[in-house]
Amino acid sequence: MVDHNCTDNCEIRNAIFEHPYHFVESGLDNVYLIGITYRTCKKCNKQSADIPALDDLMFKIARAIIQKEAPLTGPEIRFLRKRLRKKSADFGRMIGVVPEQVSRWENGDNSPSDSADKLIRVTYSLLSNDSELQQKANKHVDEWLATLPTIEPQKNINAELHQNEWETEEVAA
Question: CB-based contacts of 158: which residues, under 8 Å, 6+ apart?
């Protein structure tokens, strides 16, 4: 039960490098903002902020997550999935896992394998409408495709019996 009105007890602060605004509203515990004005209740320490260009901020946070070198965390996977506006079941189906696995990742019960981590990043990059991420993903796909063997037409194997011994040869189908 709140015994006060936060608005009546608010102090206005500027988020600076030494005292940034902890942006917990993002769903991530490691995002801090600098350069905005925010309010703090002097009685309960609740904070709130009016964040300009919120869509751009969320877009840039997602890009930073995709490009980081460390493995994805559960909250980061949830953040990316929600940015794509996908339910767990739909997201899981897209990357080839059951919704329960997505939930286990997001809740920190286990971590995705290296290949699942990469697939999550590629999936987000291709579906996010972030042209920079799409370009990087497509470049990597093109590089990968270039390493695959050249696809040749299917050939048949003809086996011919000669004096009770078989001889084989590959021939065009």
Answer: 168, 169, 170, 171
